[in-house]
Design goal:
The model has no long low-confidence stretch (mean pLDDT about 95). Helix 2 (about 90-105) runs parallel beside helix 4, helix 3 (about 115-125) packs antiparallel against helix 4 and helix 6 crosses helix 7. By secondary structure, the protein is α+β, with helices and mostly antiparallel strands. The chain is about 35% helix and about 25% strand. The radius of gyration is 20 Å and the shape is elongated. The structure holds zinc ion. Zinc ion (ZN) binds near residues 156, 159 and 182.
Length: about 240
């Protein structure tokens, strides 16, 4: 028997066709995290779901949840289709990358209000033409922070010495920042200024993307740091990375 009718806001991550006319939609919601929903006849009845099940759309879903894990979609209302993402290949690639990271890193059906807000804000910023490099750095940094994977930044991961105006290295496999004595040549050379910028960024609301200015060195070293951290926690390299510069 069908369960009760529920309603919530959701972000469409992607969909796959199922059978003759149906669709299975992957959603991210604040209170119930990653969910899969069954949209009966979605490919036949345009008036019921329209184009609302396209990736990156913000929608209200009305669904029934029975004993199975799949929601049964009854009706949807469109809040924002984020069409700006489809006007530029880099933005589209970054949007796909953001969605893929969440799918790779989150458990299904766990409440994720902060990560829901983070991903929605990241997509909004990109859809409005925000700087792609800044968006990616902020998104990756905040995602690993919210998931509890943030490395040691402002002190040596091994001897815990607090840095002051000195050369350091970064090696995510050994906990993060390292003084030169502890590093012994491992990891990547990183400026203390970059480390300070990233650490300060974590004090700002994770849903804010506009108004940041990072120098070239911070963007490049930030990329090195986040690539190392993500490589430690991802089960496989994201496929969408191939489409990014
Ligand atoms: Zn040390």
């Amino acid at each position: 028997m069908a369960g009760h009718l529920h309603r919530c806001q959701a972000l469409v991550l992607r969909h796959i066709d199922y059978g003759e006319a149906d669709r299975i939609v992957s959603l991210l919601t604040a209170e119930q995290g990653l969910q899969k929903a069954f949209a009966r006849a979605a490919r036949k009845s345009r008036k019921r779901f329209g184009a609302m099940l396209e990736p990156f759309s913000q929608i209200i879903v009305h669904y029934r949840s029975g004993r199975g894990s799949l929601w049964s979609l009854q009706e949807t209302e469109l809040l924002d289709s984020r069409t700006g993402l489809r006007q530029d290949l880099q933005r589209l690639g970054l949007a796909s990358y953001g969605v893929e990271l969440v799918e790779l890193l989150l458990e299904e059906a766990q409440p994720q209000p902060q990560i829901f807000q983070l991903l929605c804000s990241y997509l909004d910023f990109l859809a409005q033409g925000g700087d792609g490099e800044v968006a990616r750095l902020l998104y990756e940094l905040r995602l690993v922070y919210l998931l509890g994977y943030i490395p040691h930044f402002l002190h040596c991961s091994l001897c815990l010495k607090i840095f002051s105006d000195e050369a350091i290295r970064f090696d995510a496999a050994r906990g993060g920042s390292l003084c030169l004595d502890c590093a012994g040549g491992s990891g990547a050379q990183i400026g203390l200024g970059t480390i300070g910028s990233l650490a300060r960024t974590l004090n700002i609301s994770p849903s804010r993307f506009s108004g940041f200015r990072f120098g070239r060195q911070t963007l490049e070293e930030g990329r090195t740091i986040l690539s190392q951290v993500l490589a430690q926690v991802l089960p496989r390299p994201p496929k969408s990375l191939r489409f990014l510069p």
